[in-house]
Amino acid sequence: MGSVEDEEPASKRMKLASTEFRALSNGSSKDLMARPLPSEGDNGKVIGSRGVIKRDEFVRIIANALYSLGYKNSSARLEEESGIPLRSSSVNIFMQQILDGNWDESIKTLHKFGLSNENMVKSACFLILEQKYLELLEIDKVMEALKTLRTEIAPLSINIDRIHELSSFVMSPSRSGLIGEENSRGKSRTKLLEELQKLLPPAIMIPENRLEDLVEQALLLQRDSCVYHNASDQEMSLYMDHDCGKHKIPSQTFQVLQAHSDEVWFLQFSHNGKFLASSSSDLSAIIWEVNSYGKFSLKHKLSGHQKPVSLISWSPDDNQLLTCGVEEVIRRWDVSTGKCLHVYEKAGFGMLSCGWFPDGKSILAGINDKSISMWDLDGRELDSWKGQRISKISDLEISDDGKNIITICRETAILLLDRETKTDRWIEEDQAITSFQLSKDNKFLLVNLLNQEIHLWSLVGEPNLVCKYTGHKRARFVIRSCFGGLEEAFIASGSEDSRVYIWHRGSGELIKALAGHSGSVNCVSWNPTNPHMLASASDDHTVRIWGVKGLNVESKNAYSNGVHYCNGGA
């Protein structure tokens, strides 16, 4: 390549470009061919440590970004100093012709670009002529509009459905507003330019916000490759490569909740993250309130069950709570008062599981006669599904649209029941299933197995096994796992070795094994609104709240209202 001295001075090249651009207002048609922009000599060199960035492309993208940000003078100075124009003179003329409504001239200019893709040229012509047609209709030049439709748009022989739609506009009683937002020609023509920019090759018209898109892609790639990513995207910076580190994973015990008098079997955060409910073999359930500092206090202790409370389910609005006794009854509670609002039971049979329908007006119950019942809030049965629908040990999930019911129907099978089509699908495992949880987006199911494995299944289309998680211990008890963290990027599980295990959801890599409990950890729940807060329930009669370093805990090492506050340690 030639040296810098081989080329014309930058100022001279810029004067030429400025002269050509001024021809827009003079109607000049000189130099309309969209020739390749300068790429010889120093301007054609690559930059960057790996030599994959073309210098001229890089400069044009920066100039384009400056214009988009409103720094027009800075962008023009960059073009002048670098000698690399943002766009060729013919493209500048084409853009001005569009903004001025010189439709026929703009199409002539388009054809002079020398584009080899005939379909692309036709599509661009269609967009331009469509705008011409709509503007003619708007000013009641109906015959000219019809001529444009019949002799210019129709012969392109593309987008026939749109042509029929355009022809119907002629009969419209009011043709105002056809061309775009707020009946503004300027705005609709600017929108047309944006559409053409997306359609034409980037070498001719650089896509809008191209630099922003590239930078965003780089940031998201770094985020997605960060195994420990559990922080808001707002915390990412352009100044350094992104790496969260393990400290973003909740791994420090900040509180120990000690109000249960026996093994704690189940716990679940409310949807809004402001409450935590736990249930125990002491025949009770407890509602804990989370204040703005992340500290827990006992709100209500719910008594009335005659058997251990095995499951809990929050209403969609978090104002009510269901509790299920082991093969006993289901109770519905008012969260604000702690009052029992209703008891659901079926004569001669016991309840195994419970859940809410998305509208909050009805509930679902798994019954030990292997059936599932749907009741309104007053206990009237609305529907039922009989046969082998539920096993003795069962969880129950309902999709957010209320169409699908998910339950363990056999020792090694999960039933996906479609209420609308009355069809069944199954997830078949080789080992006995002990529990499962549905992801927030309803696209994945987390399944705990007897063989000390946790399987992640995709429910999109036919059920498909996506990932396996191992390392935790399970020999005798029902151990539950959950999705959690930012965008549910992690999997957490209890374990019979008294630890809480955390894996990266996508890779299956074991990230943390949290010690602190002195008995089997039966259940875990990740706060859905705080990615740095995790709760675990144990046979040691306690619930532990796990967080990250730096959390401000005002009370330290003090017992109050069934809560033990810790100073960031186990």
Automatic annotation (TrEMBL):
Subcellular location(s) of the protein: Cytoplasm
Domain of life of the source: Eukaryota
SMART domains: CTLH, LisH, WD40
Entries under InterPro entries matching the protein: CTLH_C, LisH, WD40/YVTN_repeat-like_dom_sf, WD40_repeat_CS, WD40_repeat_dom_sf, WD40_rpt, WD_repeat-ST_regulator
Organism for this UniProt entry: Cucurbita moschata (Winter crookneck squash)
Subunit structure: Interacts with RANBPM.
Matching Pfam families: LisH_WDR26, WD40
WD repeat residue intervals: 257-292, 302-343, 356-378, 514-549
Record-given protein name: WD repeat-containing protein 26 homolog
Gene, per the UniProt record: LOC111442612
CTLH domain sequence ranges: 96-144
Presence of the UniProt keyword Membrane in the record: no
Keywords assigned: Cytoplasm, Repeat, WD repeat
Keyword Repeat: yes
CDD domains: WD40
CC terms in the record's Gene Ontology section: cytoplasm
